[in-house]
């Protein structure tokens, strides 16, 4: 965190100087530009140098006051509340979709190992993890938005958004979310499929499965009741730990589709040297990561009885 | 021996098999013993059996040849700009009315004070406003002059010399423009002043040793030389080509002025006329007919009245930068928005992308092996310290830092090559944590094995133990990790360049090429050949790396049954 603070401190785009100049040139200002700079520096803690400034930020941050965003003009927490739910909605949709697509395919691929299905799934998953986000987004835009004309190219609202009823507004929003959600899903199914398949294979080669088969259970029952449940253990853990990450927003997708979510906001803040917002975002991300690890540990204990014993 | 075994089951089975097969008899001798392969050979055998891995390997080989050997055979460089000639409506000439009076000091006249010279236009305006034909001027030194209007647009300044009974003209001012009948010919000030003096006083004058007559003719004013040939025409419009060449014929200028006068009379904003202009072929060269004189083609010229001038436009063949050219035999994939060949840029871009990938992965693997090795091998407080370091580096958000560094480099306008180096260094530096953790895990498990105890007992040096015995056993996982990491580094670098924060223009890399077209939709659909091949190339390369990595993982894994 401090590294990032130091980096942004060194950024030449100095918000403080430009604000000071602006404030000083307003009619009726009582201070000159130099005095404004001094006052703003005191306010933001820059006069104490990099380290002092960092600690000042830390003090106020711990108390919950993250200050005003320089780039967006409003207070950081307010801007955050504005944008976070769009990102979350997008991420949730793609999360559900990717589970629905990737897990069954992974299970089937493991069941029929070395068959054509398995190879196809392997190829798809490897291709999936290799696709760069921006390329997928652009290709989707090209096919659906430009050639077929089904969706708008970017943005969150249609042109006649304000004229629509509430239900209409909701559907308009949904319509604009289709392409970004599709992009996010396509990128993530690769790794999930692979993960499911690997775990399923491991489980299917275990001794208790062999016992179940020897006992004469039907293959279907063996897989769905015994193997699948055991695969769920690592799967649920991974998925649970990635739940907090749903809030972190997908930077590139949001920027490309002009969805005003947290990723988009943080990207522009970073480029424009908006220190309060960026620091807040990073603190937020760190909290999310820790939360994710915590949930993973908890879920491991919940789902796997063997862990509970220890 | 054979007799003794004749009745055994083994022999019986073999005999039956031999009968079934027909020719071959299976004897359990050296030929039939299972061939022992070395570990490396085993791994290669498993790897090459994997079809996907083979495909990936082939793609990689092709990609490397394309990126590194390709440019040697392909003539264009990555920043070479291409030009073409095309018919384009350009601003050919401008016609503006001269409203300020230009003063010509007569040859041999006494020196005039600079304040008088500078105020000529002011005096003339005053005369026009008051309507008088004469004006008295006194310069700061007390000398007296008279400014007389000798006729339309011509004013003569004469000096009142008390000694001389008359008044000697010292200066002539006029708004007339001298258009030479011979394009390119210019007239000296002596010529012009003599002509203007003679305009309303006789019509004959001598200049530069030749006699000329100046007379009003056909609504305009002509200057003829002694033989009666036209030399120049006087007008009030300056008609000039935008390109600076003085190739406009006098008929063109007269025609233009006539059209402008008509426009004024009818209060039109635009008008048009046709004129014969020198013809240019598709390659931008002038066309000459059999006798060596220039061919002329009828061209439509539009005249538009704009602020302060009239602009004459027509279609001409001009030299343009060949942007967005579609694929052709010359440029196999066309040219991009800056006129540079796309295929060449893809090759050079491939070099940079692949090089970045390799350097970063080697850097982070090296760091990871060293740190992980030390941590795993020595254990204790060294291990704890290094693991804390790894945790810190793990928590560093890579994308935000890269984006901020990118914005930082943007702001200080760093050299593109230097930026590339920085980017590689940062990517390598931030990525060693995962590798170190992996290596440490491997070493911790290997440390307990018997061969390590044997080494310790034999007294081999610690460093030798690490590097010659432990590290080669870590290699398999390391290689797999490195290969998969290569793919992700290439994607990261492309994404950063796409956002505009990585490698910069004019260096080509696969991400920047896509960046140039996503800003507008017309570029996206109309010029799909610019970005789709590049994107596919990125995908293919990364897919290939992932296939190979996957194949390697399966090949190294002894638990694979097939």
Please provide a written account of the structure.
Helix content of chain A is about 75%, strand content about 0%. The model of chain A has no long low-confidence stretch (mean pLDDT about 75). The longest helix of chain A is centred in the middle third of the chain and has 39 residues, at about 165-205. Chain A is an all-alpha fold and about 300 residues long. Chain A has helices at about 1-10, 15-25, 35-45, 50-60, 75-110, 115-130, 135-145, 165-205, 205-215, 220-240, 250-255, 260-270, 275-305, 305-310. Chain A contains 14 helices and no strands. In chain A, helix 6 (about 115-130) packs across helix 8 (about 165-205) and helix 12 (about 260-270) crosses helix 13. Chain B is α+β, with helices and mostly antiparallel strands and about 550 residues long. In chain B, the strands form 3 sheets. Chain B has a 5-stranded antiparallel sheet with strand order 12-1-15-14-13, with helices on one face. In chain B, strands 2-6-5-4-3 form a 5-stranded antiparallel sheet, sandwiched between helices. In chain B, strands 7-11-10-9-8 form a 5-stranded antiparallel sheet, sandwiched between helices. In chain B, strand 8 and strand 9 (about 210-215) form a beta hairpin.
Low-confidence segments of chain A: none
Number of helices of chain A: 14
Could you give the order of the helices and strands of chain A? HHHHHHHHHHHHHH
Overall mean pLDDT of chain A: 75
Low-confidence stretches of chain B: none
Largest interface: A-B, 44 and 39 residues
Which quaternary structure do these chains form? heterodimer
Helix/strand class of chain A: mainly alpha
Largest sheet of chain B: 5 strands, antiparallel
The proportion of residues forming helix of chain B, as a percent range, comes to: 40-55%
General form of chain A: globular
Distance between termini of chain A? 35 Å
By DSSP, the count of extended strands of chain B is 15
The beta-strand count of chain A equals 0
Largest sheet of chain A: none
Helix amount of chain A, in percent?
over 70%
Provide the spatial order of strands within the biggest beta sheet of chain B.
Answer: 12-1-15-14-13
Number of distinct helices of chain B: 17
Radius of gyration of chain A: 25 Å
How much β-strand is present in the residues of chain A?
under 5%
Radius of gyration of chain B: 44 Å
């Amino acid at each position: 965190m401090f590294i990032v603070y130091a980096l942004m401190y060194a950024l030449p785009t100095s918000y403080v100087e430009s604000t000071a100049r602006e404030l000083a040139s307003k009619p009726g200002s009582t201070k000159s530009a130099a005095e404004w700079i001094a006052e703003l520096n005191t306010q933001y803690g820059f006069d104490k140098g990099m380290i002092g400034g960092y600690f000042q930020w830390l003090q106020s941050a711990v108390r919950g006051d993250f200050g005003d965003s320089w780039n967006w003009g409003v207070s950081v927490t307010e801007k955050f509340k504005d944008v976070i739910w769009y990102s979350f909605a997008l991420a949730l949709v793609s999360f559900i979709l990717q589970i629905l697509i990737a897990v069954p395919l992974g299970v089937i691929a493991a069941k029929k190992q070395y068959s054509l299905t398995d190879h196809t799934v392997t190829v798809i998953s490897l291709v999936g993890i290799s696709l760069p986000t921006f390329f997928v987004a652009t290709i989707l835009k090209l096919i659906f938005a430009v050639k077929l004309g089904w969706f708008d190219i970017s943005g969150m609202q249609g042109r006649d958004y304000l004229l629509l009823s509430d239900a209409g507004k909701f559907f308009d929003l949904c319509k604009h979310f289709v392409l970004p959600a599709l992009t996010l899903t396509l990128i993530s199914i690769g790794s999930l499929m692979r993960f499911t398949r690997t775990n399923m294979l491991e489980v299917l080669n275990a001794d208790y499965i062999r016992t179940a088969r020897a006992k004469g259970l039907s293959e279907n029952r063996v897989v769905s009741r015994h193997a699948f449940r055991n695969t769920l253990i690592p799967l649920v853990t991974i998925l649970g730990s990635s739940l907090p990450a749903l809030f972190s927003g997908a930077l590139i997708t949001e920027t490309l589709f002009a969805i005003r979510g947290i990723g988009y906001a943080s990207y522009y803040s970073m480029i424009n040297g908006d220190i309060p917002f960026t620091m807040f975002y990073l603190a937020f991300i760190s909290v999310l990561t820790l939360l994710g690890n915590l949930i993973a540990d908890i879920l491991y204990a919940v789902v796997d009885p063997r862990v509970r014993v220890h | 021996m054979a007799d003794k075994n004749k009745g055994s089951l083994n022999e019986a089975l073999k005999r039956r098999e031999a009968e079934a097969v027909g020719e071959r008899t299976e004897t359990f001798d050296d030929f039939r013993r299972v061939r022992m392969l070395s570990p490396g050979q085993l791994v290669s055998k498993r790897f090459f059996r994997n079809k996907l891995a083979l495909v990936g390997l082939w793609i990689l080989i092709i990609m490397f040849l394309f990126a590194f050997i390709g440019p040697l055979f392909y003539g264009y460089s990555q920043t070479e700009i291409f030009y073409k000639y095309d018919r384009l409506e350009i601003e050919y000439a401008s016609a503006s009315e001269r409203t300020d009076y230009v003063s010509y000091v007569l040859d041999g006249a006494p020196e005039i004070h600079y304040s008088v010279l500078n105020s000529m236009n002011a005096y003339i305006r005053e005369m026009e406003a008051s309507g008088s034909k004469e004006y008295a001027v006194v310069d700061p030194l007390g000398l007296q002059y008279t400014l007389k209007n000798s006729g339309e647009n011509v004013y003569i300044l004469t000096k009142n010399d008390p000694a001389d009974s008359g008044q000697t003209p010292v200066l002539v001012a006029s708004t007339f423009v001298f258009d030479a009948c011979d394009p390119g010919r210019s007239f000296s000030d002596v010529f012009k002043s003599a002509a203007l003096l003679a305009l309303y006083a006789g019509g004959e004058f001598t200049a530069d040793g030749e006699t000329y007559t100046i007379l009003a003719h056909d609504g305009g004013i002509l200057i003829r030389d002694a033989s009666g040939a036209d030399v120049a025409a006087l007008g009030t419009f300056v008609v000039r080509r935008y390109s600076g060449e003085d190739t406009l014929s006098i008929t063109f200028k007269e025609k233009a002025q006539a059209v402008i006068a008509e426009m004024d009379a009818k209060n039109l904003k635009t008008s048009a006329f046709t004129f014969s202009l020198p013809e240019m072929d598709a390659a931008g060269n002038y066309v000459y007919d059999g006798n060596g004189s220039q061919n002329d083609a009828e061209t439509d010229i539009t005249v538009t009245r704009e602020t302060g001038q009239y602009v004459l436009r027509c279609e001409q063949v001009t030299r343009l930068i060949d942007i967005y050219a579609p694929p052709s035999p010359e440029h196999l994939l066309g040219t991009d928005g800056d006129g540079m060949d796309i295929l060449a840029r893809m090759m050079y871009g491939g070099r940079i992308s692949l090089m970045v990938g390799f350097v970063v992965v080697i850097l982070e693997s090296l760091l990871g092996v060293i740190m992980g090795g030390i941590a795993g091998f020595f254990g204790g407080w060294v291990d704890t310290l290094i693991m804390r370091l790894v945790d810190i580096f793990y928590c560093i958000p890579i994308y935000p830092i890269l984006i901020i560094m990118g914005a930082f480099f943007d702001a200080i306008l760093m050299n593109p090559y230097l930026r590339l180096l920085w980017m590689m260094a940062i990517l390598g530096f931030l990525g060693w944590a995962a590798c170190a953790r992996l290596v440490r895990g491997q070493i911790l498990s290997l440390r307990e094995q018997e061969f390590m105890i044997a080494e310790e007992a034999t007294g081999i040096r610690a460093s030798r133990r690490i590097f010659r015995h432990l590290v080669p056993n870590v290699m398999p996982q390391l290689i797999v990790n490195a290969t998969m990491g290569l793919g992700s580094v290439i994607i990261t670098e492309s994404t950063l360049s796409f956002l505009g924060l990585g490698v910069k223009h004019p260096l080509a890399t696969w991400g920047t090429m896509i960046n140039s077209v996503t800003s507008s939709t017309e570029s996206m659909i109309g010029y799909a050949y610019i970005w789709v091949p590049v994107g596919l190339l990125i995908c293919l390369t990364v897919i290939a790396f992932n296939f190979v990595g996957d194949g390697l993982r399966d090949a190294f894994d002894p638990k694979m049954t097939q």
